[in-house]
Amino acid sequence: MQHFTAHLHDEEGTAALGAALARALAPGLAIHLHGDLGAGKTALTRALLHAAGHVGTVKSPTYTLSEPYSIQLDGRAVSVIHFDLYRMGSPEEFLDAGFREDFNGDNVCIVEWPEKAEGVLPPPDLNVFLTVSGHGRDVELQASTALGNSCLQRLKFAPNM
């Protein structure tokens, strides 16, 4: 499986990675974002959504748990659903909310704090690990399925040096 690591020197580097990921998206992709508070999970998602064509505010779904956005991928309308599970009390809340239905092969699902729904959350195609490092971030992308592998093969990103 494909694997990618880089050091992002600043917010612009995070935004550039988000833009590169936007160009590599495919319907059905599930991305799990891992990292401490302030590691850049929402910033990466915001940059991805804006680069994918969403015009307007991208808010963190900390209290709503999910926010859907409509984008175009290869001329096809696709929903990108941004989940933030930080405030979930138990994995059962994920099931009770009906979120599993969003992982249907048509939507792109981006999940912050996936460990909060461990055992009930569908597995990711792509894991993204963000770690604060100095003034920047270290990032690691790991594909875990053929769809995730395909996404990383399409990824065209040169980290800011």
From TrEMBL:
Keywords: ATP-binding, Cytoplasm, Magnesium, Metal-binding, Nucleotide-binding, Transferase, tRNA processing
Source domain of life: Bacteria
InterPro entries: P-loop_NTPase, T6A_TsaE
Gene3D superfamilies to which the protein is assigned, alphabetical: P-loop containing nucleotide triphosphate hydrolases (3.40.50.300)
Record Pfam families: TsaE
GO BP: tRNA threonylcarbamoyladenosine modification
Keyword Magnesium included in the entry's annotation: yes
Subcellular location: Cytoplasm
Keyword Glycoprotein recorded: no
Gene Ontology CC terms: cytoplasm
Recorded GO MF terms: ATP binding; metal ion binding; transferase activity
NCBIfam families, per the entry: T6A_YjeE
Family membership noted in the UniProt record: Belongs to the TsaE family.
Protein name per Swiss-Prot or TrEMBL: tRNA threonylcarbamoyladenosine biosynthesis protein TsaE
Native source species: Duganella alba
Gene assigned in the entry: tsaE
